[in-house]
Design a protein that fits this description.
Blueprint (H helix, E strand, L loop, with lengths): L4 H12 L5 H8 L3 H13 L3 E9 L2 E8 L4 H23 L2
Antiparallel strand pairs: 1-2
Length: about 100
């Protein structure tokens, strides 16, 4: 599911920049690379983003991703749903 906050952050970064690698995303998000790479893979497996380029860097391969244009509407709907869930939870806890 796209609704996870880290996945929403990944998608929002890719909406701002044409291509990013998990390393670049982790620096912008100030999260660890393993965490970001994990959520990038999930976004890819869900069909929201795709790998568009690889580059060799310091003995490793850096993968770059972009949003799949056809998935933009589904992404938008998932983000709206996540916000609604967050608001409902906040409301429930406010009334405790």
């Amino acid at each position: 599911m796209i609704q996870h906050p880290t996945r929403i952050y990944v998608i929002s970064l890719l909406a701002q920049y044409p291509q990013l690698s998990p390393l670049e995303m982790s620096r912008k998000m100030r999260h660890g690379l393993p965490l970001v790479a994990y959520h990038v893979r999930i976004c890819r497996d869900l069909g929201a983003i795709r790998e568009v380029e690889t580059r060799h860097r310091r003995g490793a391969v850096e993968h770059f991703y972009e949003i799949i244009p056809e998935s933009r509407l589904a992404i938008r709907e998932a983000i709206v749903e996540a916000r609604e869930i967050r608001d409902a939870v906040e409301h429930a806890f406010a009334n405790l």
